Sequence to fold (287 residues):
Amino acid sequence: MKKLLALLLVWCALLGSQAASVLQITDDRGVAVMLAAPPQRIVSLLPSLTESVCALGACARLVGVDRYSNYPASVRTLPQMGGGLDPNIEAVVALKPDVVLLATSSRASQRLESLGLKVVALEPHSYADVRRVLDKIGQVLAVPDAQRVWRVIDAGVSAAAQSLPQRVRNTRVYFEVNGGPYAAGASSFMGETLTRLGAVNIVPAALGPFPKLNPEYVVRADPDVIMVGERSAQGLAQRPGWAGMRAIREQRICVFTPQQMDVLIRAGPRMAQAARLMAQCLQDKAP
Fold:
C-alpha cells in the first residue's frame, strides 16, 4: 500500500510539472493558444514580430519569415513564405513550425490552424500595443523580463525628444505613409512619436491611425513640414494645389530612403531609431 501511494504521488508530481510547462497565450483575436513547451521552430509573418523575436534573443529559433522581414540581417537568409497577409501555406506547413506568428489581419490563420499548426496572431498599432505584444512574445518564447526591450525603446524616444531645441515645438507635420495618400494619424504609433517629439500632427486621432486622405485636406491644412518616403516623394508639387503649400514652397520636406521607411513604419524594437529619424527631420526642416 505504501509503495502504491508513493507511485501515485510521483505520478501526480509528474503531471503537475507537465501542466506547469504548458504555455497558454491569449492572442489579439482573443484566442487562447496552448503550447506544450517554448517553441524552438518559429515562422514569423510580420516584420515587427520578426524583429521582436530577435530583440528578445530568439532569432535562432526562426525557421521562416515573410518576404518583408529583412532585419536583422541574419533573417535575410531564411526561407521566405510570401506575403504576410496571404502567405504560401504549403511552404509554411513544410517547415513544421512549433508556432506561427502573424498579423490579426492575415487571411492565413484559420487555414494554418485547420492543418494542425499553432497560430498566435498579434498586431501592434500603438505604443501600448507594442508594449503588450512584447509581453506576449516573451510569454511564447518563455523569455523573462520582455519589458527590458520596451524600456530601451521608451528611453530612446525620450532621449530623441530631449535632444530637440524649443523652436521646433508645435511644428505642424504631415507624414505620408504611402501613396493614396495614406497618412500616419495622431492615434498611430508614428503619430504618438511625433507627439512625444513636441510636433503637431495635422491628421487628428478621430480620422484613425492610417487614414486615406483627400489630397485637398493636406492643402487646406498647409503643414510646416512634410515627411515622406522616396517612393511617394516624386511629383508632390504636381499634385493639384500642393505647389502652393508652405512646406513645398520652402523645401521643408524630409524624404526617407526605403531602409529608413522600414524603421519608421514598423511598430517594434526600432521605434527609438524611428524617433531619432523624425527628430533629425524636425531639427533640419522646422521653420
Observations:
- Confidence is low (pLDDT under 50) at residues 5-20.
- The radius of gyration is 23 Å.
- Residues 2-21 form the longest helix (20 residues).
- The longest strand covers residues 172-178.
